[in-house]
Amino acid sequence: MATHDYTVRLDPSASAALEAEAKRRGLDNVVVRGAAGKAEAARLAAASDACLTIFKDVPILATNSPNKLFDTFAAGRPAIVNTDGWQRELVERHGAGLAARPGDPTDLAAQVERLADDRELARRLGAGARRLAKEQFDRRILAERLRGVLEAVVA
């Protein structure tokens, strides 16, 4: 298996513990960083090989709409999601990423390794993500949809 670099963004309360664990394991390819703003999140997505949109295995979290997933699509990077529901369905239907089983860190690691080891798959999924962003989530398209809804309500 190849060696890969991983950057992790966590809130400050979790950062120290993760840094200590990475050091204990001798993992010099793990970088722990503090919270980032929207612009920096978009830059990180664009600089990444793939992006994770992962949540604790709590059913209500499968209904959320995380900005980082849309940043991933806009950057043309494959997404790895771990919630059942619309996120999983979206990445699978549009060939925009992979899904890991909820609550299964071994499967999550396997999906990360799959993309790291298969650069052509990562490229294809990234292209699918970018296509999805352009065809369904472009601001102009979304604004037109909103306008249609508002006009229908007023009528």
Topology:
Elements: E1 6-9, H1 12-24, E2 30-33, H2 38-47, E3 51-53, H3 67-75, E4 79-81, H4 86-93, E5 97-99, H5 105-117, H6 119-136, H7 139-154
Parallel strand pairs: 1-2, 3-4, 4-5
Helix pairs in contact: 2-3, 3-6
Q: Could you characterize what this model shows?
A:
- The protein is 56% helix and 11% strand.
- The strands form two sheets. The protein has a three-stranded parallel beta sheet with strand order 3-4-5, with helices on both faces. Strands 1-2 form a two-stranded parallel ribbon.
- The chain folds into two domains: 1-35, no CATH class; 50-154, Rossmann fold, CATH 3.40.50.2000.
- The chain has 155 residues and is mainly alpha-helical.
- The protein has seven helices and five strands; from the N terminus they run βαβαβαβαβααα.
- Strand 1 (6-9), helix 1 (12-24) and strand 2 (30-33) form a beta-alpha-beta unit.
**Taking all residues together, what is the mean pLDDT?**
89
Query: How does the helix and strand content classify structurally?
Result: mainly alpha
Counting DSSP H or I runs of 4 or more residues, the number of helices is 7
Q: In CATH, what is the class of the largest domain?
A: Alpha Beta
Note the overall shape.
globular
